[in-house]
Amino acid sequence: MAPSHDIAHVGHVELLTPEPEKSLWFFTEIMGLTENGRDGDSVYLRTWDDYEHHSLKLTAHSTSGIRRTALRASSQEALDRRVKALDAAGRGIGWIDGDAGIGPTYLATDPDGHEFELYWESEWYQPPEELRPALKNQAQAYPGRGVSVRRLDHVNFLAAQVEPNGDFVRDLLGGEATEQIRLDTGKIAAQWLHFGNKSYDLVYTEDWTGSNGRLHHIAFATDTREDILRAADIFLENDVFIETGPHKHAIQQTFFLYVYEPGGNRIELCNPVARLILAPDWKTITWTQAERAKGQAWGLKTIESFHTHGTPPVE
Amino acid sequence: MAPSHDIAHVGHVELLTPEPEKSLWFFTEIMGLTENGRDGDSVYLRTWDDYEHHSLKLTAHSTSGIRRTALRASSQEALDRRVKALDAAGRGIGWIDGDAGIGPTYLATDPDGHEFELYWESEWYQPPEELRPALKNQAQAYPGRGVSVRRLDHVNFLAAQVEPNGDFVRDLLGGEATEQIRLDTGKIAAQWLHFGNKSYDLVYTEDWTGSNGRLHHIAFATDTREDILRAADIFLENDVFIETGPHKHAIQQTFFLYVYEPGGNRIELCNPVARLILAPDWKTITWTQAERAKGQAWGLKTIESFHTHGTPPVE
Amino acid sequence: MAPSHDIAHVGHVELLTPEPEKSLWFFTEIMGLTENGRDGDSVYLRTWDDYEHHSLKLTAHSTSGIRRTALRASSQEALDRRVKALDAAGRGIGWIDGDAGIGPTYLATDPDGHEFELYWESEWYQPPEELRPALKNQAQAYPGRGVSVRRLDHVNFLAAQVEPNGDFVRDLLGGEATEQIRLDTGKIAAQWLHFGNKSYDLVYTEDWTGSNGRLHHIAFATDTREDILRAADIFLENDVFIETGPHKHAIQQTFFLYVYEPGGNRIELCNPVARLILAPDWKTITWTQAERAKGQAWGLKTIESFHTHGTPPVE
Amino acid sequence: MAPSHDIAHVGHVELLTPEPEKSLWFFTEIMGLTENGRDGDSVYLRTWDDYEHHSLKLTAHSTSGIRRTALRASSQEALDRRVKALDAAGRGIGWIDGDAGIGPTYLATDPDGHEFELYWESEWYQPPEELRPALKNQAQAYPGRGVSVRRLDHVNFLAAQVEPNGDFVRDLLGGEATEQIRLDTGKIAAQWLHFGNKSYDLVYTEDWTGSNGRLHHIAFATDTREDILRAADIFLENDVFIETGPHKHAIQQTFFLYVYEPGGNRIELCNPVARLILAPDWKTITWTQAERAKGQAWGLKTIESFHTHGTPPVE
Q1: Touching check for A96 and chain B: CB below 8 Å?
Q2: How many interface pairs between A and D have CB atoms less than 8 angstroms apart?
C-alpha cells in the first residue's frame, strides 16, 4: 500500500557527540555542511539542498547517539491526525516549543525508546548574500567543499525488537514497509519504511546486544555515485575511518559508503541512482535469511561490525 | 502546496510513428526497452524498472505525435474522485476497456486536446525466465543493451495556451506546479507540474505555431549522468539526430539530452541526480523572461528548434 | 628511470579456455568485444579502441591459462635490439610467422616460462561498413553492447619467483618497475612494470603454489569508473562470478573489478582515471609487508582467493 | 611515427595576469591548486598529482597571456640533443638559472614567438606534514577543495601560421602531430602534437587576428567527466565565466569545459577518459574544413569566441 502522506519527510536529527569540535570539523569541512547558528551546546548545520533551517543539530554530550528524529507533517491537519493517533496509543509525550526555525513540536517515542518530534510550521531558509545560489530553485549555493552532500536522507535505528517499531511507523505515522528481512524463525530482523516516493526514510535493524534506543547510522544523499567514490578519497586523506564500501546494497539497491564520524556515530553516504517507489500498491519485499547471507549486490560480505557497532556504545 | 496524491504517476504513453520499424529499432536496440506483446499496429515496450505491463505503446500511424498519456491513480477511491471531477468539468469522455495489463480506463482531454487515460487496476509484470532479475526488488533484468533507460519519466506537451492546461492538471488531476516561466506580458509560457516527490511529471510549453494537441517530447530517466554521456556516443554511432545537450537545465536542474527518434518525435534522456521535492509547502518557482533568455544552467543557449519542432509537424 | 621505449605496448594475448562457447559469449556479449576472424580452434576478438587486428586470441584447450603475450616493438630497429638481447641471454626461441594481421614474430620466454612474442609489422584494422566509427580518430564504432571495454590494458602473471622475471622485463625488454611489494624477508612479492606512460603493462605476483607459467589475470580498461559500476550489474544479471570489487587498489590506485570468465580465467576491469607516469626519473615505489596487509585503498581486505586462484588450476 | 621521447612532458607554464589576487583565488579556491612559494610578483602553484615543484607560475603583469612553457627533458643527454638542435636552427636564446626547484634551463622560441624553457634537473616535491598523502604513490594529499584538478595537461597556442610552429615541435623538440585540421586551401588551421602516450601536449591554432605569441588556453586534467560536470556547478556558483561546454570534442575526443579565469586567460578542464596513443606508427588524422564545420562530437557548434578570444587581447 501507499503511505498516507501525513508525514512529508525526515526534517532533521539531533546527533550527540563526545567530541564536539572534531565532529563539527567532520560535518563542515569533510561533509560540506554549513553552520546556521548555535544554541547552548548545539550547533545547527544544514546541507545545501535543505529548504528548512537545519538538517542536523549537533550536540556536545557525554556519549554518542541520536537524541531525536524530526518528521515534518504534510499540513496542520496531517499533524493533528498523527498527534491524535500517537496520543491514543500512549506513545505521545506532549508539545514543546520547536528548535530554531521550527514551530510547535510534538514529542513521541517508538516502542524501542527512540524519540521523535513532529511539526508542521517551518521557516524557509533565506541564505545570506555569500551563500545565495546561482539558480533560484536551489536553497543555498553549492559549497564545493569536501563531499558536499545534498540532503539528509534517512535514519537507521537499532532496536531490540524490529517488528513493533515498524508497526509504530506504519500504524501511527502512516509509513509503509518497502523491504524487510525475515529470519527462518519468522522474526523480522530489519525493516525499511517510507513516507513518499523515496524507497526508505526510516530503518529498524535488530540490535544484537538487546539494547534500546540506539542508532545504527544516519545517511546523507549525494547526487552521484562518483561523489561517493570521491568522498572515499577525501575520507582516506583525512583519516576518517571507513567501515565498508563503496558498494551496492542488494536490499534497496543503494550505492553506499559507511564511515564513523569522530564522535563515533556511523554515517552513511548513499546514492539511490534514479530509483523511486512510484507504485501505489507496492508489496513489501521480504528477504530470507539465506538471501541476506549472500551479502551485498556485487558479492561483498556484510562486515561484522555492522551487527555490533551502534551508538551510544554498549558497556 | 503538496499535490493531492490521487494520481500516483505517469503509467505509459501511446506514441505514434510513421516509421514503425525504425522507431521500434530505436526503442529496443538503442534505448534498451523490451518488447512485451503486440496488438494490431501497436507494439508494447517496457523499461526494465517498470512494474506494470508496459511503459510505451508504439503505434504505426500516418504521422508522429502522442495519442494518449496514461496516469495511474493511487487507489480505486482516488480514481473515482478524479473521474467525478473530470466529468463535472465536462472534460471526461467515458470508460473504455484498458490496454493489455490495464483495468477499466477513463478517458479525458485537457483543454488543448491532449488525451489522457486514468486507471487503477494494473497487473504487475512477471518476467519470463530469461528476463528474471538477479535482485528480487527489481522488475526485470538490467538489459545492458544500448542506453538501457530506467523508466519513463515525464511528458512535455505543446499547447496553444499553457495556463488553462496547467489549471486542468492542478484542479482536476490534483497536481501542483513546481516551476513555471512567466513572460513580461504576464502570460505563462511553460509550466512544470508534479504528482509526488518527482519535481515534474507533466509539462506544458507554449506552441508558437498555435496548434493544438501536439507533443514537445517524452522523457526517459537514466540512473546517472554518465549514462547520458555514454548515450550520446551511442546516438552518434547510430546516426540518431542529437538536437541539443548533454547539458543541465536551469529550470528543474535536470541533466538532459534531446534526440529525435526515427519517427520524428523528440525524446529526452534525463537525469535528476538526487533532487526531489520533499517540502509539502513548495512554492512555485517563477522564472522571468529575462531569466529564461540566459539559457541553460551552464550557459548553453536554448536551441531554436526547441520552439518550433513538435509532433505531429505543422504543415 | 624511464623505460627504453623499444616495446611500445602489449598488443594482444592468447587465452586458453576449456569452455570455448561460453567464453566466447562472455567476451562478445558481456564484455562487448567484436569477433574478427577464426583460425582452427581460435577466435580473434578485438576491443573497439584497438588499431590492430585483434586484442585477444581465444583458443579452445583442455584447460585454462595464457598461452602467449604479444608485445609490439616501436620500430624494426627496436625489435632487432630486443631480439638480440633475448637471444644473447638465452631466452629466445626463434622466429615464426605471425598470427592474422601480424608480421614476423619472435618467440621468447621469461624465467618462469611464460611465452612472449615480439613483432613490429602490424596491419591497421579497417572496419567493415557496419562497424565504421562516426569519428575518424577511432578504430571501430563503439558497440554499446554489454560492458564495451576500450582496450586490453595489462597482463598479470603468477611466478614462482617474482624478481628474476621483473629483471627479465627490465633488462631484456627495456621496461621499468613503477611499484613493487617487498616482504620483511627482502623478497619481492609482486612487481608492476611499464613500457610507456601507462603506470603498468606487465605484473608479476608470487605464486604461492610454487607453480610456473600461470596467469593471475588479464585486464581490460574502461573509460570511466561508472562503466565498472555498470559492469558489476551486468555481471550480476548474467551470473558471471564476481571475485572482488569494485574498489580502488592502494598500489597503482587503479579502480578495479575482478571476475572469472566461464573458462576459469580471472579477468579484471580497470580504470586508471587520469593517472599517468610522466616523470622520466620515476623512482620505484616499494610497499612493505605491513603496508600491503592494510588492504586496498579504501580499506577492503584483499580477498583470499587472490593468492590461490590462478590458471591453469593446480592439481 | 612515434615521438622521439627526448621531451618527457610539459612541466609547467608561467601565466600572466592583470588581476593577480583574483586569479590567485581562482587557481587556489576554485581549481584547488596549492601555493608552493612566491618570488617577486609570482606565486608558484601546484596540482596535487605534480611530482615537481610547481605546475603553474602565476605572475602579476600589465596584461594577460603566457610568458613561458617549460618542457622537461627525459635525461641530460636528451636535453643536450634538443639544445643542440635548437641552437643549430637559430631558435635558441641561451641558458639561464632555473626557477625554484628547477635546474639549468635553456630558453628558445617557436617561430611565432612563444617562449619555451627546457630543463632536466628537477627537485621532487616533498609535501609538508599537512599535505602528506595517505597513499605513498601520490605526490600530495588530494585537496577536496573546489575542482581539485589532477595535473596540468596541455598548452594551446595561437599562432599567425600554424604549420611552421608544428614543424618546430616536430623537428626540434621531437614531438609528433596526432591530429590536425587542413582547410580547403591546403593551409593547416590547427595541429595537435604529443611527446608520449598522451594524445596531445602542445596545440597550435591559427590566430585570426594575425597576432603573434598569444595563448588560446592552458588545460588541466581531471580524473573523471563527473569532475567536470561538478566543476561547471562550482563555476556557476562562483561567477566564473563559462565560455562553452561541457561537451566532447570530435578532434581528440576530449571531454571539455572552457572558462575564463579572472585575469582573462582561457582555461580548459579536460578529461581524456582512457584514451592513449599507444601505436608507434600512428598516422596523423587530418580533418577537413567540412568536417570541422560540423562542430563538436555530439553536435555542439563551435563557439564564435573560440576564434577571437586569446590572451593578451589584441587592441
Answers
A1: no
A2: 44
D144 to A144: CB separation less than 8 angstroms, yes or no: no
Cβ distance of B221 and A274 shorter than 8 Å: yes
Q: What is the C-alpha separation between A132 and A129, in angstroms, rounded?
A: 5
Nearest-angstrom CA–CA distance, A313 and D211 = 70
What pLDDT shows up at residue A192?
Answer: 98
Residue B99, number of CB atoms within 10 A of its CB: 22
Nearest Cβ partner of C242 from A229, A257, A298? A298
The minimal CB distance from C232 to the residues A242, A244, A298 is found for A298
| Grid cell 639549468 in the structure block, residue | D104
Cβ contacts of C304 within 8 Å, gap of 6 or more: none
Yes or no: say if A24 and A31 are a contact pair by the CB < 8 Å rule: no
* Residues C181/C289, Cβ–Cβ less than 8 Å: yes
| Set of chain A residues whose Cβ sits within 8 Å of the Cβ of D238 | 144
At D310, the amino acid letter reads G
Phi first, then psi: give them for residue A186, nearest 5 degrees.
100, -10
Is A129 an interface residue toward D (CB < 8 Å)? no
CA atoms within 13 A on the CB side of D120: 13
Q: pTM higher than 0.90, yes or no?
A: yes
Q: Does A273 touch chain D (CB under 8 A)?
A: no
**Using an 8 Å Cβ cutoff, are D153 and D256 in contact?**
no
Question: How far are the Cα atoms of A233, B159, B183, B294, B295 from residue B290, in angstroms, in the given order?
Answer: 41, 22, 8, 7, 10
Q: Which three cell numbers stand for residue C222?
A: 574502461
A125: which strand partners?
A: none
Strand pairing report for A56-60 and A7-17: parallel
In whole angstroms, give the CA distance from residue B59 to residue B64. 9
Question: Within an 8 Å CB–CB cutoff, is residue C128 touching chain D?
Answer: no
pLDDT band at C158 (very low <50, low <70, confident <90, very high): very high
Query: At which residue does the C-alpha cell 494490431 appear?
Result: B40
Structural domains in chain A? 7-307 (3.10.180.10)
Query: Is A285 in contact with B135 (CB distance < 8 Å)?
Result: no
pLDDT band at D2 (very low <50, low <70, confident <90, very high): confident
Query: How far, in Å, are D83, D214, D264, D281, D289 from residue D167 at the CA level?
Result: 16, 18, 29, 18, 21
A204 touches chain C (CB under 8 A): no
D297 touches chain B (CB under 8 A): yes
Q: Are D205 and D157 in contact (CB under 8 A)?
A: yes
How close, in Å, is residue B25 to chain C by CA atoms?
Answer: 14
Q: Which of D102, D200, D223 to mutate to test the interface with C (most CBs of C within 10 A)?
A: D223
Q: Which of B33, B133, B126 is nearest to A297 (CA)?
A: B133
- State which residue of chain B sits closest to A222, comparing Cα positions: B274
Test B144 with C144 for CB contact under 8 angstroms: no
The reported pLDDT for the residue numbered D27 is 98
User: What ipTM was predicted for this assembly?
Assistant: 0.97
Q: What angle do helix axes A225-237 and D225-237 make, rounded to 10 degrees?
A: 90
pLDDT in tens, B148-158: 999 999 999 99
Contact B146, B30 (CB under 8 A): yes
Alpha-carbon distances of B212 from B154, B161, B310, rounded to whole Å = 19, 9, 11
